[in-house]
Structure formats: structure tokens, C-alpha cells
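So, does this match?
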Amino acid sequence: MASDLLLRFVDRAQNYPSKREPELRAEDFREISDKYNVPAAEEQAGRCSQCGVPYCSVHCPLHNHIPDWLRLTAEGRLREAYELSNSTSTMPEICGRICPQDRLCEGNCVVEFSGHGAVTIGSVEKFITDKAWDEGWVEPIVPGAPRGQSVAVIGAGPAGLSAAEYLRVLGYDVHVYDRYDRSGGLLTYGIPGFKLEKHVVMRRVERLAAGGIVFHNGFDVGRDASLDELRAKHDAILIATGVYKPRAIKAPGVDSQGVVDALDYLTASNRKGFGDAVPAFDDGSLDAEGKHVVVIGGGDTAMDCVRTAVRQGAASVKCLYRRDRANMPGSQREVANAEEEGVEFVWLSAPEAFLSADKVSGVKASRMRLGQPDASGRRAPEVDPQGGFDVPADLVIKALGFDAEDLPHLFGAPELGVTRWGTVLVDNKTLMSSLDGVFAAGDIVRGASLVVWAIRDGRDVAATMHQWLKAKAKAGKVAA
């Protein structure tokens, strides 16, 4: 009976897909974990306790129907499992790869609370969608009846792509404008291949293009057209640019040669993976090979940088973070992966100055200690009076996170309202900005956050844009 396949968390051990050995995976940018085969996926899905109140779904920003598609997987109904997973997410296999499940669904799994180890939700999610691609179950986008209205989406990251898909299905003409030569945003150029191989992103983009969504790559709003010009051309606008301005470090020597921003470093590496010509990589400026690398920061971007440096053949890789391990924002799984690959973490340390003559030669670091909790609830780091230390470095990568760019200035739209953090100010219910018909979603509204939240925001803003566009069309007919 099907029920015999479920609730097997007591007699069936948690088993993630096996990881390649650290010394082997450090030689390339392929994803580090193997995939489940069908029996393993069904077996692990059958560990789900089928909770009456599924905390995994509650703590998923998309509120995916996790217990339901786990049950379908356990019963061997893989196509149905995929279709249910796909019903709430435009990118389930991407979320399965890069979501911090240890902080979201799996971290709130009741089986985890019982001491038996969480159900491997992310790995099953990745499996069923990859299986769907392999079997041809991923159907093309079917646009709704043409509405005679067009939408411009500024930004081809996860929020923009998610909204574009929903709007196209509703029958709108959708044009996506992005400054990069490939779509995907940070999925394409920010996240390394060992976490998200690029063909996984490109096949999603190709599916959207095949569904009639028009992509304008290499299009810089403010340079190639102002926001007002796009507003005149389209019935509604969605700003989904993300946040790309690197947070600064105020320390002597920060402008030294060899002190670089994380996104510049990661973009260069990802472009090389595509086979692009990257002069700043080829001349060694953004290549870690043979260098002593120091990464400043403790988030997921810092983890991407240290693990990329290992694969580029760095002589050594150290990560300096001002708090301790328990208080870092990055995924603990990523820290463990980095340590397995040879990265050294220097906890409770912060840069005081960057040592250099012609180029950087090291980091003068302060020892830190944790004081009283700050506004975020975490204990605030403060300088330890016992003194600091120097760390030799040929390449220093700043990975302290990202802030919003000055969009009113960049877009030639001074009337666009922004918050004191520079993010776009929107109505909480409609997600419309201070400009009529101009909406915003994703990191450019909430600040630097998770991909899964961007997908959720894209889904939400598509719904509010649809309501606004319908009202606009009805008003136009009445006026006519």
C-alpha cells in the first residue's frame, strides 16, 4: 500500500546525494553533489512525516506544497510531483540547488526536531525537476489570449524572470530589459557553477524566449532609454534590477591594486566558464591562481568567493569575518564545504588597513569580540583591545554585501521614490512605486536577500500588475 511508503523516518536514515571528494571537486566548476537515482529519491521522500501543520511549507517563502510532492515522489508518481512543485515556483530546480534549506524548509522539518535528521527536501526538489527536463515533462509556456497591453521588465534576474513568466501566461506582451549580455542576473554571473551550473539557468531563459517573451540584452536603462521613454512605450513597468552596489570598507589602502569587489571577481570567473574573453582575468587581476587570497565577509557571496579561489588554484585562501561561526549570515553547509576544500576561516577578525606598496601585500586585521546585541538581535562586534595581526595577501576580495544603486539618477527619473536605504519605495499591497504604473519587486525593494524571495516577489507583483492593467484597460474602454 502507498501508505507503507511514508513516515519511514525512524527506520530509514537521512541520506543526501553523495558529494565528490574535495580534492576532485576543487579541480572544476561542476556541481559538487551527484543526483539521486529514482529509488534513492523515492526512499528519501518516504521519510516525510506528513505533518498536519507542515512547518517546511510555512517557512518556505513560496509556501511550496512540500509534503504533497514528497508523498507523490515516494509513491513513484514523479510527473505529478514535478507538476505540483512547479505550480508554486517558476524555478524549482534552481531553488533545490541554491536555497539555504538548512535555514528554511529543512531547518524547520519536524523530523529534524525529532532527532532523526531532516527530510532532504532540496535534493528531492532538484531531482524531480531535473527528471522532468530529462523526460520532456517541462511544457512550453502557453500565452493567454492577447490583451493588447505590454509590460516592460527592467532586470532579468529571478524576480524579473518570474514575473515575466506569469505575465506572459496571462496574455501580456512582455519585454525584458537587462544591462548584461545574458539573462539571469546573479543566477548567471554571480553564483558559481559548482552551486548552479549555467545550463540550468539558460534552459529556463530559453523556455521564456520560446514562449514569446522578448529579451533586450545589453540594454542599460538611462543610457539606451530613460524610464519615461519606456513608460511611453509600455502600459506598465516592473523594476526588478536587484542590488549591485558593493558595500564599502573604510580603511587605509582599500584602493590598492589587488583589492577587488566580489561581484567583479565572480562575474569574471563565470564569464570564463562561458568561454568569454575577460581581459581583467587574463592579465591576472581577477584570477586567484598561485595567490594568497583573503576574502572579507561572512555571507554566501563570501563563500562563493573563497570556493572559487580554491578552484582557480590559489596558494592559500583565508576568510576574515568579524563575528564568530555561530553568528555568520552565510549557510553553514557552505562553510563546511569550504572547509573541506581547504579554506581557513579566521573568526572574530576585521580589516583595519590594507598593506601595499605598488599593490596589496597583506591585511592588517583587528581582533574582534562580541558585545551587546545590536538592532538585528545579534551581538555586535567590537575591537578587542588585546591587539591585531597581519595576514599576507596577493588578492583581497571584498564581500560585504550589496546596496541599491541610485536608480532615480541612473534612470533619469528623479521623481522615483526611494527609501533611506536607496531601495525603491512601494505600496505594500500593490507593490507600485511613486510613479503610476511603475511597480518594483525583488531585492531592489527588500534589499539583498535570497533568490527564493525574489521568485516569490515576482509571483506577487505579477498578480498586482495584472489587476492594475485590467483596470486600466477597462477605463480605456469606458473613455472610448
